[in-house]
Design a protein that fits this description.
Blueprint: E1 7-8, E2 12-16, H1 22-29, H2 32-35, H3 46-61, E3 66-72, E4 78-88, E5 93-100, H4 109-124, E6 129-134, H5 139-148, E7 151-162, E8 165-175
Parallel strand pairs: 5-6
Antiparallel strand pairs: 1-2, 2-3, 3-4, 4-5, 6-8, 7-8
């Protein structure tokens, strides 16, 4: 991809992040409730948000992944992000990741956004398999994935070491042949 794709849903515009978004990214990544199941510590300064945006944009430039900023159609303020990483082109698969400001949780927003990203992944990135790794206690994320049609494939015991403990993850996947546009 040479140009960053902009995606639209009924309520959202998914666009490339830029350094002007660092304030919003910092505000919600500084909340422990947002980073509780995330593989990074809560932010303590805005430079961390700036660096995260740089990393996400570099992955896109190197054709290694894509991360969209989620904005409401009515305003350009970023309320979350979603995208693909761990892209293994030779295996036609990638991992999806996402987060949202807590005030927008449990309103169906992430379901709408992820469906659009998945559609793009299957139709434009040539993916055959999209995976998600979720901590067992992250019930909200598990519900979102199941609503969209992801299937739980199993639990990876002590899959990684994080915050001074071994953490299990549940692996979910959606295959292109099983995907139904909703």
């Amino acid at each position: 991809m040479s140009q960053f794709p902009i995606l639209e849903t009924d309520r959202f515009v998914l666009r490339q992040l830029n350094q002007d978004d660092s304030r919003e990214i910092f505000q919600y990544f500084s909340l422990d409730e947002v980073t509780k199941f995330y593989d990074l510590e809560s932010f303590t300064n805005i430079e961390q948000a700036e660096e995260l945006i740089r990393r996400w944009n570099q992955r896109f430039e190197k054709n290694q992944g894509i991360r969209w900023g989620i904005t409401l159609r009515s305003e350009s303020r970023v309320i979350g992000t979603c995208g693909f990483h761990g892209w293994m082109k030779n295996h036609y698969k990638a991992e999806i990741g996402y987060e949202l400001i807590p005030e927008y949780w449990r309103q169906g927003y992430m379901t709408e956004v992820i469906q659009k990203a998945i559609e793009f992944g299957f139709n434009n990135l040539g993916l055959n398999r999209i995976e998600a790794f979720v901590e067992p206690e992250n019930v909200g994320s598990r519900r979102v994935l199941e609503k969209i049609g992801f299937r739980e494939e199993g639990t990876l015991k002590e899959h990684f070491y994080w915050r001074n403990r071994f953490v299990d993850t549940v692996i979910y996947a959606l295959l292109k042949k099983d995907y139904k546009v909703r």
